[in-house]
Write a structure and sequence with these properties.
The protein has one domain. Helix 6 packs across helix 7. By secondary structure, it is an all-alpha fold.
Length: about 160
């Protein structure tokens, strides 16, 4: 009895992993465009510079982060949501409004935004990479694909 439920849950998880890959491959072209856009000078290079220059424009990174997260959410297999670790990082790194007092504790106010952006960018990069690499969800997997399974609660 236990063996049958283990086998069923393994088969169900494999089905969800394949569904994730299928969802990625169906959306690959717009995901590639999004990655190209956020990796551009204005999407990545300039926003990171704004953090170190201590410019209020670093706050604009939140919009990019939200775009990525929305794309990630749309790829979720049936019944799956983004993992709690990632959701916490995103919650702490979005919905901030610049106030002049933030300049006194710059890192405290802005580092969570940069962290949220970098984590979301990482997952988008992995989605594009493995959406192009795999034709079927693998049993022996690369770390990036395993991280995606963690993101969707499949590992």
């Amino acid at each position: 009895m236990i063996r049958n439920s283990i086998t069923r849950s393994f088969v169900y998880r494999e089905k969800l992993e394949q569904q994730l890959l299928t969802n990625i491959q169906r959306a690959l072209e717009p995901l590639e465009k999004l990655l190209e856009e956020i990796s551009s000078h204005w999407g990545y290079e300039d926003r990171m510079y704004r953090f170190y220059y201590q410019s209020f424009k670093v706050y604009w990174i939140q919009g990019i982060t939200v775009m990525i997260v929305e794309a990630l959410e749309q790829l979720a297999p049936e019944g799956c949501t983004l993992c709690n670790l990632f959701q916490t990082i995103i919650q702490e790194g979005t919905e901030h409004t610049f106030e002049f007092e933030h300049n006194k504790n710059w890192m405290e106010h802005t580092r969570p935004m940069v962290e949220a952006f970098l984590h979301s960018k990482y997952f988008l990069e992995m989605i594009v990479k493995y959406g192009k690499t795999y034709t079927e969800a693998p049993q022996l997997m690369d770390s990036g694909w395993a991280a995606l399974l963690c993101l969707y609660g499949l590992r």
